[in-house]
Amino acid sequence: MFESLLWLEEITSTQDFLKEKPLRIYSVVVANKQKKGRGRFGREWYSQEGGLYLSFSLPKNLRDETTLPLVLSNAVANYVRSLGFLPAIKWVNDVYIHGKKLCGILTERLKDKIVVGIGINLNQESFPEHLQAVSLKMVSGRHFDKVDFLIKLLDYVEESLRKLSEEGFLSFKDEIESRLLFKNSEVILYTPEPVVGILQGIDKDGSLLLLTQDGLKAFQIGEITLRAV
Ligand code: BTN
Question: 3-state class of 48 per DSSP?
C-alpha cells in the first residue's frame, strides 16, 4: 500500500511536510525530531529524539473516514500488544499504557487527500510531568529499533485499512470497545462544553456513548478526561 518512504533527521513537522509537498498518495514521511510537532486542537506534540514521528497520506474517498482515528489507534494497539504490552485506547485517537499517553494520532482532511500523523513514544527516557506521557522504554527498559518498529507498524496499519474498506467499521467495534480507557467510569467530555456521563462504549459509527443525566447520548467530537471524585 505505502509507496515511498522519506526519513529525515529533523523537520518542522512531518504533517506539514506532507501537506505542503506534492508527494503521491500513500507516501510516508518520518522524522527523528520535529521542531514544531502538532497535536489535536492546535496543541504542541513533544517531539524530542527517541520518539517515532510519521505522517502518511490516504485517498479522500476512503470509506468510513470518521472512524479512521479509532481504527488507526487500534492498529497501533494491536502492534504494541504483539510486543507484550497491554495498551488501551482513549477515544478517539490516543493509545495509553499504564494510564499514560504512548501515542497520539492526528487525521487532517485536505481537498485531495487525508493526511495522517502518528507520534509514538518509543525510546525517550523521561517526559515533562505535565504531559502525562510514557515511552515503551520507560515501561519495559527495552530499546526499540525505530526502522523495525516502523515497518511492522505500517503492516498493521495497512491490514487495518484493508479490513476497514472491505468489512467496514463494525468489524472493529468489539475489539476497540474492549480496550477503551475509562469504560464504565464517570468522565467529562469537552465538546468543548463539558458533558458528564458514564462511558458506556462506542456506537456502530464510532461515536462515544455516554450515560448522562438525560439518558444515553452519542457524541462524535470532543475530548474525555476522568472525572475526579
Ligand atoms: C494528538 O495526540 O493530539 C495527536 C498527535 C500527533 C503527533 C504526530 S507526530 C507526527 C505528525 N507530525 C505532527 O506534527 N503531528 C503528528
Answer: coil
**Which atom from ligand 1 is nearest to the alpha carbon of 51?**
9
Report the alpha-carbon distance of residue 136 to residue 229 in Å, rounded. Answer: 30
Cis peptide before 192 (omega within 30 of 0): yes
pLDDT tens-digit readout, 11-40? 999 999 999 998 999 999 999 999 999 999
In a shared domain, residues 110 and 204:
no
Q: Give residue-wise pLDDT tens across range 145-158.
A: 999 999 999 999 99
3-state SS, residue 23: coil
- Rounded Cα–Cα distance for residues 154 and 145 (Å): 14
Q: How far is the CA of 117 from the centre of ligand 1 (A)?
A: 5
Are 103 and 76 within 8 A, CB to CB?
A: yes
Residues 42 and 86 in one domain: yes
Bridge partners of 196, per DSSP, are 188
Looking from the CA of residue 15, the nearest atom of ligand 1 is 12
Name the residue range of residue 112's domain: 4-178
Nearest CA to 5 out of 120, 136, 110, 153 is that of: 153
Are residues 163 and 62 located together in one domain of the fold?
yes
- Quote the number of domains for the chain: 2
Which band of pLDDT confidence, cut at 50, 70 and 90, is reported for residue 229? Answer: low
Cα of 64 to ligand 1 centre, how many Å?
21
Tell me the CA–centroid distance for residue 131 and ligand 1, in Å.
14
Q: What is the pTM of this model?
A: 0.96
106 lines ligand 1 (CB under 6 A): yes
